[in-house]
Write the structure tokens for this entry.
Amino acid sequence: MPLSLRLLGLYPKKAGSAVVGAAARASLPRSLREPLLGRFAASYGIDLGEAEKPLREYTSFLDLFTRRLRPGLRPQDPAVPGGLNSPVDGALIASGRIESGTLIQAKGLPYRLDELLAADPLVARFEGGAYATLYLSPRDYHRMHVPCTGRVLAVGRVEGELWPVNEASTAFTRGLYVRNRRAYWIAEGTGEDEGLDVAAVMVAATHVGGVVVDPRWLGGRTLARRDRLQVPGLPCSPGDDLGTFELGSTVVLLVGGARASGFAWSRPHGPIRVGQRLGALVP
């Protein structure tokens, strides 16, 4: 394990993340927004030309991080049987099959499906299915969108640690995704996606403690530190709001259901944007 990760074990990650989060939420005077936010955006390579609003209208660093994009910038790929589109802008860094309840994090490091979903009653639907891991860097758009056509069945939250999810940490920290704080969203497919179940697991990280499920799926309720809420089959469509990362992190996308054996990932590892197809049922 790199020395940096050993030293990070001594760092109070939750307290540090809380401090960074408070600073990110602090309101900026209008006169300082463009110079401060502009410098920050330039340092991380954020494309401000895609932002919904002018820079001066973002009231804080977090407001910029959780920005919406200008309408029409992320069209959804056309529907195909079993088609699954990317829920985020980021990079596809891992994908494969779920075998004996096990997924691969990186470089052969395994982790358990039932731990990832905190033994959710629907976890058995994903056994023998497929998984893909998508990483969001600080420069990426930080909102998540529905990847499929279906009905939402459940959302949940699991309190955990806040280890980083960068390349070094993913390669060396065992059980990273099941140790960290996370939220999840589960739907069953309808229409072209009939016979598939889809789960999006949103994994938090150091200084990225905020993982927010869109209020639409909560029905006026709130998620406790460790919680699971049943959703009454609310309809969802590709591109609908799913949730928000407050700074950026990782999404593990799961595909299960009666037709999961016929699903295959079609996208090579590397950069991807919201709405681009990740995979579909093989003809």
Observations:
- Residues 76 and 275 are 4 Å apart (CA to CA).
- The helical segments are 3-8, 13-25, 30-44, 61-65, 113-116, 167-172, 176-179.
- The first strand starts at residue 84 and ends at 85.
